[in-house]
Request: fold
Amino acid sequence: MSAVLLAVFNEYSAADRVRTRLVSDGFPTDRVELTASCEPGRAGLQPAGSDHDRFVAYFRTLLSEADERPFVEGLAERVQGGAATITVHPRGAIETERAAEILEGEGAMEVVGHDLQNQPFEHAASRGEGYWVRHFMLDNPTGADCIYCRLFPGHKH
Reply:
């Protein structure tokens, strides 16, 4: 599992507000997860016989180290008791710092980090420097100004 920040909130409404704040701050929706009894999220997709077992299985995937296992059962019980968690999958030190700042600033009762020291920045498209558009624009044998004219030179626009 990759780097994770997991925060516990006493109320669902607080966690829901924090999720909205994180996304508004620029975190992609697929890297911010809310888990609560009324909205189990990805925990609800775990194959298990009961909600409790689904929460345990979900938190076990996030907190997989041996020293983290005692937290798993406690988190599942807290969520079943009305608490909610926000999980953030940060990419890099800047996102980790910003997510922690938001989680703690919004009143998280507890914030747990997993594998935060081992998170290389993930490149969305290219590992090289520069812009692909710039390279595309420099190699312009047709002289066309429109990108579509360059991509489809035989098509009449």
About this structure: Strands lie at 4-9, 32-36, 84-88, 110-114. The first helix runs from residue 12 to 24. The chain has two domains: 4-114, 124-157. Confidence is low (pLDDT under 50) at residues 123-127, 130-136.
